[in-house]
From TrEMBL:
Classification via Pfam families: Beta-prop_TEP1_2nd, NPHP3_N, WD40
Keyword terms, alphabetized: Repeat, WD repeat
Stretches assigned to the TEP-1 second beta-propeller domain: 1065-1270
InterPro entries (alphabetical): Beta-prop_TEP1_2nd (IPR056829), NPHP3-like_N (IPR056884), P-loop_NTPase (IPR027417), Quinoprotein_ADH-like_sf (IPR011047), WD40/YVTN_repeat-like_dom_sf (IPR015943), WD40_PAC1 (IPR020472), WD40_repeat_CS (IPR019775), WD40_rpt (IPR001680)
Statement: the UniProt record of this protein carries the keyword Repeat: yes
Residue ranges constituting the Nephrocystin 3-like N-terminal domain according to the UniProt record: 334-494
Name assigned to this protein: WD40 repeat-like protein
PANTHER family: F-BOX AND WD REPEAT DOMAIN CONTAINING 7, WD40 REPEAT PROTEIN
Organism whose genome encodes this protein: Suillus plorans
Top-level division of the source organism's lineage: Eukaryota
CDD domains on file: WD40
Amino acid sequence: MDSRTYYKADIIEALIPKKDSTKSSVYYVKILVEGHPPLKTNEVARELDGRAVWNKRFMLPVDMEAQLEIKSKHNSIFKPGSRSLAKVGLDVATILRQPVVAVSQEIRLNFPSDDVLHYDASQRGYILVRLYRPEEPISEPISVGKSFSVLISQLDTFIQIVGVASQIHPFVNLAWQVVSSLYTIARDQLDRDKSIGELTEMMEDVYTFVDDIKSFPSRLASQEETIKKIMSQTIECMLFIQEYSGHGFCGRALNQQWAGEQIRRFTRTFTMLKASLNTGVGVQIALIAHRMYEDVQSIAQTQTLAKLHPVDMDDPSRPTCLPQTRSDLLFSVLSWAMNPSSNQNVLWLHGPAGSGKSTVATTIANITRDLGRLGAFVFFDRRMAARNDPAAVVRTLAFQLGEFDPRLGASISTVIKGTPSIRQSPLRQQFHKLLVQPLSESELAVWSQEGPVIVVIDALDECGHVGDREDLLSILALESVKLPPTLRIVVTSRTELDIQQALEAQKNICGTPIDINSPANDKDIHLYLSDRLQNIRSKNKYLSLPQEWPGHDVIDALAARAHGLFIWAYTACRYVENGQDLEDRLADLLRTDVCSNYESALDLMYTTALESAGRWEDPAFSADFRDILGVVIAAKNPLTASTIDRLNEVASVSRMRPSLHTIQHLGCVFRGSTNEPIHVIHPSFEDFLTDRTRCKRDEWFIDIHLSHQRLALQCISSLRANLKRNMCDLTLTRSGVDVKILPEDVTYSCIFWIDHVCKLEGTEESLSIVVYDLLVKHLLHWIETMSLLKKARHTIKLLMRLEDWSRSIQGRHQELCDLLADAVRFCQAFTPVIEQHPLLVYSSALPFSPTNSVLYQLFKDEISIPVVVGGFRDEWSPLLMDIPRPGGEVTSLSLSSDGSQLISTVARWCHVWDVISGELLIQGPKGDIAMTVFAPGGQLAASCLFSGSIVLWDTFSGQTIGQPLKRDQGAIYALAFSPDGTRLISGGQNCTIIMWNVQTASIILDPPATHTKTILCLAFSPDGMRYASGSRDGAIRIWDAASGRMVLGPLHGHSGSVYSIAFTLDSTRVVSGTDDKHVCVWDIRSEEASMPIKLRGHRSTVFSVAVSPDGRLIASASKDTTVRLWSLETGEELSHLVRRHKMPVRCVAFGKQYGRLRLVTGAKDATIRIWDIESVGSMGVTRKHKGLVSHLAFSQDGQRIVSGSLDRTVRVWDPITGQCLLGPLNLEQPVHSVALPADNVRILAADREGAVFAWDATTGVHLIATPADDPSNHSIVGPLSLERKWVVDSRTGTALTMLPTMSPVRSQASFGNCMVLGLANGGIVIIRFPDIPQLV
């Protein structure tokens, strides 16, 4: 610091000549004092009267003349180039020598009249300054503002030095932006902070390197890496100061103790960077990240995150912007990302095909990765199934963000452990639980203090088809606002209608179109063409092309034809590069017309490229081209040329020419090789080939339907040629197997053959025959292989799709339909087992399949599989899933509109379940809850309480929304939403029905009481025009939904309380269930409703009724423990479809899974069950005893089995046939143990009290028993044992099978290769294993 006299100077305003002023200009004053760093005001726009106003104060030395320069620049978030308007001198010493009385005075400094930019004679520009007389000499303080001004000036200079062609230019640009922004908003505040002053003074010292580079430009190359680190550290430091000062994303100042240590760390790092510059020695300097974490990601945490099954997003070959291109656009996006004042946390960058969106996205990802701020980078590709699946987006983002920040990773891992099936949950549920919820936890509140984290989502238009991505778009549009403001999401896509409609109107989304007609874009196209063609020239040195080749005129002509599209420029350069004569290729391009729109320009480019192949007159070449392109375009994942060739070979395609023989002539529109996947150069080329009106030639047109048909047959042929039992020569083990690497043609065919078949709607019967022939030979082999590929769960949905296809084709193949229906049930029942090991398809799933099933009958003669003696069951069980929830009876059930989620009210608590997996997703509000209902749409639910209030809550978070709805209704027992979800009706103890506006939480209708007793049930009609109510008074009333007026009723047909009511699909009938054991169907089309049709069959109170979504069936749940199904049309009970619980059934609802009708029931035993509607089989193994089987034993020769049960009986069984040979032999107490001694003439048993019994083994006559006859004295230990669910050879540890879901095993015994299991439900299962030497 120096000791001298300073004075205060306020830069008040300036008058800007009109002719210089434009609406898009901003102005500032730059102050130059010799020997001092330059200072500047903030930037302001010109007011209507021509003035620019600042009122900014500066401290200037008295003894030095100041030069004031007024400058203008274009008001853009792009990096500007400023220009000088005028310069005026300020000789303060002369002014202050004049005798004045005032402490301050205003000085008007006129612009010089000869200033070249001042050409409006009617005005004279000026700068108005207020000067303050100094009272005494003062010492110059450390000035943060001064240091910032120096940094800005040095960065301004350095930008001009490095130029846009430098790799470090984006970092310099961004550093300039963050320093300038912070200088504008926080300079005065920071001037009072000594520690920040010392830090910025250190940075000011570091930035003297700019002067050195300016004097010796050649030094830039050797110091570029260190300078890049300085820029990165400057950006981090400014983001820290931004938060420290309370002007950042957090909006409040940081903890001072932690901030002080961070300032010291930044200072040390800048000191080391300065030393590295001075010595010229590049050293390893760890840059300081403003982000606070230092934890190391644990292996266990990484493994947990991997359970999300994220999509692999590794693609190092993705192109990036050339250094000199797209600088304005990149700067715009990065400035938005770093700007905390923007309330928009999503930036949607959109433009036409080929405009360079993906290249920009990749470049942004790379820059932010270098800055340590790339949280996730997800990019879509329509040609790769994994990378175009909307269902995988959220979990892939969660995985990458969890890897990026270990704190977030730990929080996400907790969610995964709590909900293992989270990746099967609906997309909104995933978004909330994997992103919103972890980021809102208190442990991660520091995220808001650590500056921006960038997420890049590229090519959203290639993420599934329009219908597929609807949920994803809805989440981006409506849910992204719930994320922390520091999480900045950049999305790129074409301007597709569905994406535009979803994102355009959202306040938190910044829509940014790419203007392909802008001068900046045209300049970038010129630069790109020049760079690529120069590179081509250098690769062809023997052609001796001139240095300036191809010349500015040619570049201009090519750029005009590109019509602003980078893909045109890219394809044109490849076209030139792949030619023998470069000049001829350029001439071909220049002979084409300049088109009027970008699509025509692309079509002309692709036409020129294809015509260059020169073999289209050869039918064989044209046919090969269409065959290969058909596979490339129809394939769900890119395939290598060798894989395409193998698919051709197994399909016995007569043409055996290698694919590369054709592809080699089309290098300008293809990418790939023998061992690298073949791609078309851009999705727009695929669009061109599959649209006959665009490609215009039959030789080029690709019929996508025929391509899918051909590829489907190729995949089927590949499976027939390669699939077999035990594909990888495995041994059954309890530890499972790792993913196996199979040949690409086999892997692809396994995963995608059904996709290609199902694309062929309305196809001929011939294809169904081919599919059937494949499945009758290889269905189990295919399921095994899918398990090898860790895709066993995919088989369910794939087979359901194939079954739907088989029922829709012309000339329906009934055997195929039956087999597929059975295969779906097979995979539903056994996928949890098959996932454990692929060979369990044969050793567990097949043996335990129903003996009457199509699949079992087809494959039961498989060699060397276990046999369940007598069969495990005859038919498929109707019970698909049990969801037990201890704590009390299930009082209500409600399914979401899409059938994917279920809310149950159990013991006055409510829970949200995943219907497919049975996993608990979220717990709702706690309290005295009577019932809960889903609102249409599935995100909102309402719960009514016995206390008389209603709670609205979010089904994704479990959090309540707003204040409870309350009106003096007493206890509330019934709720119903209108079909559009905008209204809610409630009824209860005070006999009134209130209608609520869901959005405003206000009452719409509050009519007087009309029922005479408590209202127990309510229902809206599907058309929303009416609602119905049922009460303890035994009456049903129908109401007008608009006026609240009763339009029908009271309807009396029940003799007891009405517990449940439901409308039919056409809103013309009402179904009710009551105390009188009847289900009634009422016709409500006329005001004089007839007496109801009564459905009789229940033996006790009917608690709940439901109508199926297709309007065909009625379901009723009763206190008699049954759920009965009725035909709505005939009123007849479908007695073969009765479903049962152990206790009274309180509620029933219909739902759908993959288009299949399901029944969901809840009972007093707190169990929720999901049922198949059509199955007629028993729920479990046939009962051999009436009680739990407590003990089992083999005879010494293995020819008989004896069983004892809690039903107080003993029986003898044939282990070969499973038939009962003797019994029941009765005891007075439950049986504790049994035995067949070596003499084979007696049967022994002991009861729970220790009494011993004996019978003749042939006749069953009672014999006298002695203590020596206790069964424990005659027990034998067999070679097999049950370890959890695995049957193993207890001597060698060899696994033999894994038991599927069944009643719990309570007893077991074995002899040789046979094992018998006693079940809790009284069943006995005898399993005979293939002859194994050590067992026989």
